[in-house]
Amino acid sequence: MPTLFIVLPCYNEEAVLPSTLHALHEKMSALMSAGRISAESHVVFVDDGSRDRTWEIIEQAHAEDPLFRGIALSRNRGHQNALLAGLMTVKDECDAVITMDADLQDDVDAIDGMLEAFAQGNEIVYGVRSSRKTDTFFKRSTARMFYRFMNMLGAETVADHADFRLMSAKAITALESFEEVNLFLRGIVPLLGFKSEKVYYERKERTAGETKYPLKKMLSFAFEGITSFSVKPIRMIALTGALIFFASVVMLVYCLIRHFTGQTVSGWTSLAVSIWALGGIQLLSIGIIGEYIGKVYLESKKRPRYIIDKYLK
């Protein structure tokens, strides 16, 4: 029987945690009773610097039931770093780890399929949404565009997969060798190259609390993923520059022809449009290049990606 740990990052989740604790207690107890997992299995909540009673609830759950453990980060470090903190903390104590969100939108019953795929020799099992019916049309459309765009840029993302996945201890040890500060686990995990499988599930509505990924945060997360995994945006800038240069040569020839045929007319419109267009392209290009330079700056400092304040073991 494998020893299974479930890692859940939490940020201001006091409203949903009681339901999550109950659901996971029932699922883990059922799996242990059926002989699917070892009695040494645990559920680990990673408090990512919450400002509400999240850590207090985790402490209480740990005191009442040894099934539950807690990790408190010293400050908010973001969802991806909280996931990594949980994985790296428990990797030597288990055979496999399942990461999932604390809001109960990930289907706990999909854990059965993940364990079956793991027993068949898969080192990584991705939880993939069978549909996106619970999303708004805007979110559904932009999510599909994001995955397609990421794959077009060369990142090996799994469509409709977030961070609900099973990873073996072997896979987590391999993940530890990736030392970048700018984390995008959805792109890094497929790079490990181990045998993998997909388990499909229906994502549920959030039972309580508010989403931790509003539009602003989703856009930031998408941009982080794109610039962390591809230099193609910089190459696109170079291509755009080449096209604009070619267009300027064509315009030069056109202007000379108009001049020598006596058809020149002073036009402020074309001049203004050209200035605004070139200025906008230059600023956009500088911004994209600056994003990459900023990432190099952050990586060069090699600051810790997270600091653990407490571990309730």
Alpha-beta classification? alpha/beta
- Counted beta strands: 8
Shape estimate = elongated
Ranges where pLDDT stays below 50 over 5 or more residues in a row are none
The CATH class of the largest domain: Alpha Beta
Number of helical regions: 10
The CATH superfamily of the largest domain is known as Spore Coat Polysaccharide Biosynthesis Protein SpsA, Chain A
The second-level CATH architecture of the largest domain is Alpha-Beta Complex
Looking at how many chains there are and whether they match, the oligomeric state comes to single chain
Across the major sheet, the strand order is 7-5-6-4-1-2-3-8
CATH topology of the largest domain: Spore Coat Polysaccharide Biosynthesis Protein SpsA, Chain A
Structural account:
This protein has ten helices and eight strands. The protein is α/β, with parallel strands linked by helices and 313 residues long. The protein folds into two domains: 4-212 and 303-312, Spore Coat Polysaccharide Biosynthesis Protein SpsA, Chain A, CATH 3.90.550.10; 232-301. An eight-stranded mixed sheet has the order 7-5-6-4-1-2-3-8, with helices on both faces. β2 (42-47), α2 (54-64) and β3 form a beta-alpha-beta unit. The longest helix has 34 residues, at 268-301. The mean pLDDT is 81.
